[in-house]
UniProtKB/TrEMBL annotation:
<protein>
    <submittedName>
        <fullName>SIMPL domain-containing protein</fullName>
    </submittedName>
</protein>
<dbReference type="Pfam" id="PF04402">
    <property type="entry name" value="SIMPL"/>
</dbReference>
<dbReference type="InterPro" id="IPR007497">
    <property type="entry name" value="SIMPL/DUF541"/>
</dbReference>
<dbReference type="InterPro" id="IPR052022">
    <property type="entry name" value="26kDa_periplasmic_antigen"/>
</dbReference>
Amino acid sequence: MYNQYPAQRNIPVTNKRLNVISVYGEGKVSVLPDTAEVTLGVSTEEMEVTDAQNNNAMVITKVKEGLSKIGVQEEQIQTVDYSIFPQYDFVDGKQVFRGYKVQHLLRVSIKNIENSGLVIDTAVNNGANIISGIQFTSSDTERFQHQALSLAVINAYQKADTIARTLGVHLAKEPLLVAETSQQPNNPVPFQASALVKSSTSTPIEPGTLEITKFVTAEFTFS
């Protein structure tokens, strides 16, 4: 009689587990920033919205003209916010309309970082009444990120090697797995009033250093 079920074969099952050391590596690179970005703008308030808009536009134009005179190009200036808000006061528990506020914010890229203070002062002297922050960056961030990643891999291997030596085992030089892990974004460098710009007429700005950090996880086999 024909057997419709194939003969079963005994397939050996191995429960051999790889000897693995799992570590994470961290690499840091300190970088001197060479560019800066500052957000500045103008806030105006009038009873009529068109008056607030017109006054705001006149001051913004004056600010941009002032920046142009110190070498800031048009392509270095970008509008990042334009808002119109009705304003109210509370009098005897009642809401009383006060007028309209128009706010126009610009992001200014500063290629010569030593001019950061001069840019801020020029904007303020021409009517800017909002300076919301300044951030320092590097124009070659990607190269420094690669350096930090390389240092993270080296750090991971060194940790695994230390563990293997402590255990008295032989560590395989080639990793079983290396993966970059997520990192927290670099925080903006805060606005600091420390002497960098030597001119007595410029707001002193200290860019400090940027710290670029990369992380990896790695697994190495040992015997």
